[in-house]
Amino acid sequence: MSKKYNDKNADKLNDPARRQWQDPDLLSGVFGALDGKTVVELGVGTGYFAVALAKKYKAAKVVGVDISFEMIRKFKENAEAQGITNVFCVKSEENDTLLRDNFADVVYLINVYHELSDQRLFLEEARRILKKDGVILIIDWKAEESPQGPPLCERVSRVSIEDELKKLKFREVSSSFELYPYHYAIKAYK
Ligand SMILES: C[S@@+](CC[C@H](N)C(=O)[O-])C[C@H]1O[C@@H](n2cnc3c(N)ncnc32)[C@H](O)[C@@H]1O
Q1: Cα radius of gyration rounded to whole Å, the chain
Q2: pLDDT number for residue 3
Q3: Which of 67, 77, 92 best tests ligand 1's pocket when mutated (most atoms within 8 Å of CB)?
Q4: What is the DSSP letter of 80?
Q5: CB-ligand 1 contact for 35 (6 Å cutoff)
Q6: Of the four listed, 32, 55, 62, 99, which is most buried by Cβ atoms within 10 Å?
Q7: How far apart are the first and last CA of the chain?
């Protein structure tokens, strides 16, 4: 049974110690240059990743989407505190980002997939907002014990996500394990 991250713990997402096992600056290496692109983070939380990307790629448009008002508020606050102006935020519904079809060059979600109430519907929504040939990246907790993260029973196997992506006709589904020690990263194209 999936369980949502408690937004009362929002500040934990910005804990500087997190950089040791999930450094947001490493993310840009996965996508390559993003200037001129529209990048959407689904389940943006406080913007730990989105703000780092927006800071690095000042000519990218970085859109953070979240179902929690409190998280959206913290995301805005975080971006403003760092003087970032190329971020935008959307308070979404569970499987509705409120964004238009073919909106994004890149869609990514990190530490979110295991919280979704209907993973298939959510991936369909991610696909809808992606442009043709756009890239999706899903990073989530490996289904094995780790010092941080949700209980094992809430984690989702990498293979099941790959299968869902293939069923939805995403192309070139591939996984890697080197980015972060406790996570897998799955990349695919529309
Ligand atoms: C564990 S936090 C991760 C936040 C951020 N990605 C990070 O790693 O710092 C999960 C976030 O996903 C959001 N979330 C959960 N289900 C969602 C959904 N269906 N649509 C949008 N956001 C969702 C939660 O509100 C929360 O902010």
Answers
A1: 15
A2: 84
A3: 67
A4: H
A5: no
A6: 62
A7: 29
Identify which has the larger pLDDT, 29 or 92: 92
Number of domains in the chain: 1
Average pLDDT over residues 87-96: 97
Q: Is the pTM of this model over 0.85?
A: yes
The alpha carbon of 123 and the centre of ligand 1 are apart by a number of angstroms equal to 14
- Confidence at residue 41, expressed as pLDDT on a 0 to 100 scale: 98
CA 107 to chain centre: 7
Give the domain range for residue 36: 7-189
Let me know: does 134 contact 101? Beta carbons within 8 Å. no
> Which residues in 98-107 are b (16+ Cβ under 10 Å) and which e?
ebeeebbbbb
CATH number for 156 = 3.40.50.150
Whether 129 contacts 107, CB under 8 Å: yes
Q: What is the pLDDT of residue 7?
A: 86
Would you call 88 helix, strand, or coil by DSSP? strand
Q: How far is the CA of 138 from the centre of ligand 1 (A)?
A: 12
Residue 2 domain flag: no
